[in-house]
Design brief:
This is Aldehyde dehydrogenase. The protein is of the alpha/beta class. It has 15 helices and 23 strands. 51% of the residues are buried.
Length: 479
């Protein structure tokens, strides 16, 4: 049974069956390019969420006993089906969340890698032998899956996050209940169709679409949830963290960022500038790891700003299916207003708009600001749009100090030819990730992805998720 009816209404996927929300309600999903109706989706309720958790719990005892070979086969089949349905998935990324085709293809290929890496994880769920002081005692640790994993994914990279977090949870033997962003339900429904066709047993993967502020707590606070993984805003993440703390539920949280990039005077600007632009303008700046702060050593400050402005002014804002288009529409009215408010507040308090600042429909022009000071909202808060601030610095030490002057700690970067300075920065930047002579926007399936402070708790990735989504048991045998 398909997940979309003839009226293009998405259904819930619970216990291997597609169906409407129990109350029959739906909500609208809009195309962010022009706010036209994209589809309707089932508006799941607390009752639907509890049904999904019950289905996942019922499926867990049998699923945890499946062999690595079987889980590996299912995940590799998911990857095959993704390739067969590539056009459908890419079209969804373009039309549901406004991805330019280059970003949509990047996300598809990255997600494909995530699923295949998850398949490889199936054979790496292992413990170790442990020396014992007791004579003749054989001591070891073994890993076992936790149970039901709650996965909550964002709108901006829904396929990457779904492939990684769902794939890794299933790879180690957990079952999943998935609440996608209300702005990207169709992408998740397509993935659920693929998982079902790949042969995963009923109840191992369940999808409940709906409004997160209405049913999120029904998922994260459920007593049968054994692990929570969430990607989204810091405010919501803090709320989930408090729920998990009360229930002693382990969690990983990948939250917001105010990621800095330091540009030293010895940097190769010819090589750096395309990477710098990628750091903030990919998907219209709607990336938690986007670089919204640039600290540039004063001898090259003017040249850097000039080059950056030239690149920003030439970035494509045309048809999303045109490979030359870079700038995406901002996802919603609420987020568009946030971007506008941040720019207006900065200008009112004395900042200079070097380029951009205007809107073309639902797209904000690539915007560079100078003269930003501490009393401006944009100096400290995450904007989540194609807007960045450029600050002059007089030394490496000043750059490091200012880069660390934030409550966030997600990604970071430095451009320099001085290897000693580069590694000093990597060691001392208070962020979960650091890229030397590379953009802040970077991810791979097996790396420890995540941040510190207001940017989150824990790490994602194959090894990190294996640690987080399984638990160790100590076993001894007296010989």
């Amino acid at each position: 049974m398909v997940a979309i009816t003839e009226t293009k209404t998405l259904q819930l996927f619970i216990g291997g069956d597609w169906g409407d929300a129990k109350n029959g309600e739906t909500f609208e999903v809009l195309n962010p390019l022009d706010d036209s109706l994209y589809c309707h989706a089932a508006k799941g309720s607390g009752d639907d969420m509890r049904r999904a958790v019950a289905a996942a719990k019922a499926a867990f005892p049998a699923f945890k006993e499946t062999s690595p070979t079987q889980r590996e086969r299912w995940l590799l089949r998911v990857a095959e089906l993704m390739e067969e349905r590539q056009k459908e998935l890419v079209d969804c990324l373009i039309d549901e969340i406004g991805s330019p085709v280059q970003k949509a293809m990047f996300e598809f290929n990255k997600a494909l890698t995530m699923v295949r890496a998850a398949a490889g994880l199936c054979r790496n769920v292992r413990g170790e032998t442990i020396p014992s002081d007791a004579p003749g005692k054989f001591s070891m640790s073994i890993r076992k899956p936790l149970g039901v994993v709650a996965v909550i994914t964002p709108f901006n990279v829904p396929l990457i996050k779904t492939a990684r977090l769902v794939g890794n949870a299933l790879a180690v033997g957990n079952t999943v209940v998935h609440l996608p962003s209300e702005m990207a339900p169709h992408l998740t429904v397509l993935f659920a169709e693929i998982v079902a066709e790949a042969g995963f047993p009923a109840g191992t993967y369940n999808v409940v679409t709906g409004l997160g502020h209405e049913i999120g707590d029904d998922l994260t606070a459920h007593k049968e949830i054994n692990f929570v993984t969430f990607t989204g805003s810091t405010i919501v993440g803090q709320h989930i963290n408090e729920i998990c703390a009360r229930n002693k539920t382990p969690a990983t949280l990948e939250l917001g960022g105010k990621s800095p990039t330091v540009i030293m005077a010895d940097a190769d600007l010819d090589k750096a500038m395309p990477l710098v632009a990628r750091s903030i303008f990919m998907f219209g700046g709607q990336a938690c790891i986007g670089s919204s702060r640039f600290y540039v050593e004063r001898p090259i400050f003017d040249e850097f700003v000039k080059r950056f402005a030239m690149i920003a002014g030439k970035l494509g804002m045309g048809d999303l299916r045109d490979p030359n288009t870079v700038i995406a529409p901002i996802i919603s009215d609420r987020q568009r207003q946030r971007v506008k408010d941040h720019i207006a507040d900065a200008v009112a308090k004395g900042a200079t708009v070097v380029t951009g600042g205007e809107w073309e429909g639902n797209r904000c022009q690539p915007t560079l600001l100078t003269g930003v000071s501490g009393e401006m909202t944009i100096c400290k808060d995450e904007t989540f749009g194609p807007v960045t601030s450029i600050y002059p610095i007089d030394s490496y030490e000043e750059g490091l100090e200012k880069a660390n002057d934030t409550e966030y700690g997600l990604s970071s970067a430095i451009f320099t030819k001085d290897i000693n300075r580069a590694f000093h920065f990597a060691k001392n930047i208070e962020a979960g990730m650091c890229h030397i002579n590379g953009p802040t926007i970077h991810d791979e399936a097996h790396v420890p992805f995540g941040g510190n402070g207001e940017s989150g708790v824990g790490r994602e990735g194959t090894d990190a998720d294996m640690d987080a989504m399984t638990e160790l048991k100590w076993v001894t045998v007296q010989l």
